[in-house]
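Risk mitigation, structural track. In case the binding assays with FE(4)-NI(1)-S(5) cluster fail to produce interpretable data, a predicted complex structure has been prepared as a fallback.
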Amino acid sequence: MATEETKEKEVKKPKKTAIPSECSVDSATVKMIEKAQAEGVETIFDRAITMSPCAIGAQGTCCKNCSMGPCRLPLPKSGIEGKDERKGLCGATPNTIAARNFARMVAAGASAHSDHGRGIAEVFLAVARKETGDYKIKDPQKLIEIAPDFGVATTVTVNGEEKDRDIYEIALEVAEKALAEWGRQEGEIYYAKRAPKARYELWKKLGVVPRGIDREIVEIMHRTHMGVDQHYENIVKQCTRAALADGWGGSMLATDLQDVIFGTPYPTQGHINLGVLEKDQVNVIIHGHEPLLSEMIVTAAQETEMIEYAKSKGAKGINLSGMCCTGNELLMRHGIPIAGDFLQQELAIITGAVEAMVVDVQCIMENVANVATCFHTKVITTNPRARMESGETIHIEFDEHHAMEDARKILKIAIDNFQNRKAEPMIPSEKEVQIVGFSYEAINYHLGGSFRGSYTPLNDNIINGRIRGIAGVVGCNNARTLHNNGHLTVVKELLKNDVIVLTTGCNAMACGKAGLLTPEAASVYCGPGLAEVCETVGIPPVLHMGSCVDNSRILMAASEVVKAGGLGKDISDLPAAGSAPEWMSEKAISIGHYFVASGVYTVFGVTMPVGGAPVFEDYLYNKLEASLGGMWDFEADPIKHAHKMIAHIDKKRKALGIDKARERVLMDMADRQKLEAA
Ligand code: NFS
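Fallback model:
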């Protein structure tokens, strides 16, 4: 029994804290963790030290889908010899349990992206109906391009003469059809046909073309209920439908409709890291995922009246910056700086310079509200789906019908808070420049030029071996691994081996902070072939394609590469691979699975919650390729991770018969070097 003295010691014993330099490879992050610890403010990095993950959950073999459990089926330390006898009370095997858990992650991830998409579609409908004056159709060209996918005509014949239809008329029809995609009970989502023909035919043959988005997600929840689907292969089949409904449905609709109302991104310059905060200005961080309100905040922050109001309170102006994917959306379209990635959200507040953190949905840590109470920062929640119990948050509910009014109200709260700073802020100096905005339309334009927009030059350079292959490297940060290290090591290793990288989400932010999103990075980090191509075209070797819903842009880019010819008939024929080196969210699992289902070999880092079910694991990592052409893999070591991707790319080059071309390119280089040395 503890004596009074030992009890006191226990209370006083300082909590274990993280060692800042071991938390991140980003110096701004390290500095702010040090500041947090000096001021006694706990962050996620400390909690990752004091709390270990559950070993059984991490294996994917804990079932809590009924009240007879949780049934926990850890893999015996000695492994399985002979028949695997493990089962839950109902008899569910580790494979059934891990597959169910995996499926529920797909369902949650697909829901997050798709519900975001639904929100955009609803606002788009309000715009088309002219119910809101705050939003407009900013990119009518994109609307005209997507309308045929919904079977909506863009012209009309009057007295034998073909005329353009009114843009709002087109918008209304597209909006109604788009919104109906969520509730579609039969048939298939419109965008499935955007995939290369061979892919679409394969999906048809396998019976996995999604019906409605909501329907596929609901069906996962049904099948994973106690006592329903008890075969991991059949569960994965439903994962495929739901994930495809996300990638080629909810996410792709979100991307397209956002482009129509906010503009399609084209290359622009922006800045990134905590150094974008301004000491003398009112700092407002916009954090989350839906750009609906944040687009209005951008407009409101430019109003003279608002700037004057900020000045009247002693500030030099209003400084907006983004965080997570709302940040990516604003960066891509307006060049608004990004203050940081997922793991930097608490740290931004710890600078003491943030007047308001405006949050909407997804990837918002509840602890930002607690951290904010140690400083003057106001945390403002704006979405009815996302409120907070912790801290002292303010809720201003966003409504598209009075969006500008909401935006002004929020900015006023931030401005009024400027004078409440508790101490001199400490803003790290780190701030990198980056070139962003590579929508698949922009890549088309950049590679082919304005008269000859096409992916052909990219294909030519893949065929001739200067570019070895294409990688999509995406996904989150994870406090269980060295922040940004996995992202940067994987990406740099790929570049060194002449693999061009397409990026989104928090990987894009890691790359931006490390200076990889500039054309100049090509000569520093790339192999000779890729460097030559990037230098000739004037593009960075890592192309920032946007937020996580914008992974749909990667699907479109891959489809365009197939259509440009010479690299096979399907996405699965391409010398390409996917990766999420530091993933953590359920959205990443949904994305991973729609990449796989689209024919991409996809490697995840950190951990995969399937290790406790070896048969299911083997199905995902090996067997799935036979049916889908793509498959999952896992590799925690970032160098090996990159080399698994490169090996797959080489396998595909060989199958296409273009492996010899690369040998010639390498020989050319060696010969050139020999000449130079002589
Ligand atoms: Ni994607 Fe973007 Fe980042 Fe992960 Fe979260 S912000 S939606 S989920 S953490 S990449």
